[in-house]
Each structure stands twice: as structure tokens, then as C-alpha cells.
Amino acid sequence: MNQLIACCGINCENCEARMATLRNDDDMRREVAAKWSEMFQSPEITMESINCTGCRMEGVKFAHCENTCDIRKCVRSKGFATCADCSEIDSCTIIGPLFTAVPDARENLRTLIN
């Protein structure tokens, strides 16, 4: 199973926070923080918080993914690797809004289903 597909189906390989972390690029961290802070109306997103190796990878996680992501919490509480393992995925009110915002996430999860 591709470990770079997050619990929710987002492809961590394409995540700007992960790229900035792997490159150890503070300029990129600063740009991502400014962009995400405005996009999500979250002034607590700072350059220092832009550190992540991936939702399901060993290592540091972006604060939202580690502490407040309801999707990740649900997946972990059920003992699943991702939402692809859940029979309620198509009717789930937790992940549904993400699929609307990031349609590729659903498709990424479908590639994980055997």
C-alpha cells in the first residue's frame, strides 16, 4: 500500500509542507505558511509549523494532521490504514467535505482498494 497516500486520500508526495520539510527549505516553509494561513483563515500556521514527512510515514507531522484531523483520528480509532478500508466511505460525513474540496483524494483511495 502506498504510504504516501494519507488517511484521507490526499497524496502527501504532492504536499507543499512535506516538500519543504524534505528539502529543509525555509523560504518554501514561509511561502506555504503564508498561503495556508490565508487560505484556511488560520493565523496559527507559521513557518515553524510547516514540517511534515507524511500522514502515515514515520517522522514529524503538520500540527493539524497530528492533532486535530478528524479523518485521521477516525481511521486510527478503527484500526484502519486509510478511509479506503472503511465500508462507510461513500456515506461518511467526516470525509465527504474533503472529497468535495479535493476530488483526487477519493480516486487515490480507490487505487488502494484491492
Index terms:
114 residues, mainly alpha, globular
Question: From N to C, what is the helix and strand string?
Answer: HHHHHH
Span from first to last CA? 10 Å
Helix- and strand-based class? mainly alpha
Residue-averaged pLDDT: 93
The low-pLDDT segments are none
- % residues in beta strands: under 5%
Summarize the biggest pleated sheet: none
Overall 3D form:
globular
Query: Roughly how many Å is the radius of gyration?
Result: 14 Å
Describe the structure.
This protein has 114 residues and is mainly α. It has one domain. Helix content is 44%, strand content 0%. The protein has six helices and no strands. It has helices at 16-23, 26-39, 63-68, 70-77, 96-101, 103-110. Helix 1 runs antiparallel to helix 2 (26-39). It is globular, with a radius of gyration of 14 Å. The protein starts with 15 loop residues before the first helix and ends with a helix.
